[in-house]
Amino acid sequence: MEMMKAVGFYRYLPIEDPESLLDLKIEKPRPKGRDVLVRVNAIAVNPVDYKVRSPKEKVEKSPKILGWDVAGVIEEVGPDTTLFKPGDAVYYAGDITRPGGNSQFHLVDERIVGKKPSSLNDAEAAALPLTTITAYEALFDRMNIPSEPTKNKNKSLLIIGAAGGVGSIAIQLAKWAGLKVIGTASRAESIAWVKEQGADHTINHYEEFFPQLQEVGHETVDYILCLNATDKHWVNMAKVIAPQGKICSIVETDTPLDLTLLKSKSATFAWELMFTRPMYQTEDMIEQHHLLNKVADLVDNKVVKTTLTNRLSPINAENLRKAHQLLEQENAIGKTVVENFS
Prior knowledge:
The protein has helices spanning 47-53, 122-126, 129-142, 165-176, 188-196, 209-215, 230-240, 276-280, 287-300, 317-328, and strands at 3-12, 22-27, 35-44, 56-65, 70-77, 89-92, 105-109, 113-115, 156-160, 180-184, 201-203, 221-226, 241-249, 268-271, 308-312, 335-339. By secondary structure, it is α/β, with parallel strands linked by helices. The strands form 3 sheets. Strands 3, 5, 6, 7, 8, 15 and 16 form a 7-stranded mixed β-sheet that branches. A 6-stranded parallel β-sheet has the order 11-10-9-12-13-14, with helices on both faces. Strands 2-1-4 form a 3-stranded antiparallel β-sheet, with helices on one face. β10 (180-184), α5 (188-196) and β11 form a beta-alpha-beta unit. α3 (129-142) packs across α4 and α3 (129-142) crosses α9. Pfam families: ADH_N (PF08240), ADH_zinc_N_2 (PF13602). Its main location: cytoplasm.
């Protein structure tokens, strides 16, 4: 039995606890079906990591492995694969119903894997997959925004929580599609980052949206992407969404949403979860492969840039605990990546 290094846990503990994430040795998997086995070179952290790891009474019999952002090289392919071969450099987010990528080798279905942008190193590439899929699906699948700039003339998008991982890539994709982009940010450094990603304007999400939007020339916005506290911003969103506009959120609510606020405007509300396609093995699951390849081309053509802001090495429990702590502060700018197993 061949073993490999991994970072995981048995008990769901606060990140300050040294047992919240552990250095482990686990069995190296072998690919079957349409799975590919990837040698993991870099991983990024996302809120899903600490949400899954959050303290609870449950104790795992076998280690729980997190990590849903990977850049690496294909080591081996399953017998039914058609999209990749050993030696291909790839990036992907994976499937939350399966072990994550915080291990030396990782199994993933090829239909949710993309070719790594050739102009990026592994750390720069690992910053992108989960947030890219989330932003792309939210904009172009859930809100059905055309990807042709000529069709979005004078159309506007408000991104709530624009400085984080998803917001950083959503700004870039929205500008590529020809939208006017207003991003919310409240600190000098986050405002600067949002503008650096291409936002036309910024407003403060701690203040009422309507008067701030008026100041930058918008009575309403055609689309809203909510990446922060859906229920907290709901009344503000309902007030500024345009008639027949569309709102998409990625943040679960603590209280029910009053959808009646959207009725007079015939506005649409949609959820986005990038794990839906792999979780339910949907017929269009391969769309994640296609969109990651499309964004890789946009990166290599200098249309989209990596959102990497913080880099740690090597991949071990200590550095992943540091990465989780950074993210749990909930004021992250861009993405944190951990690279290289020692």
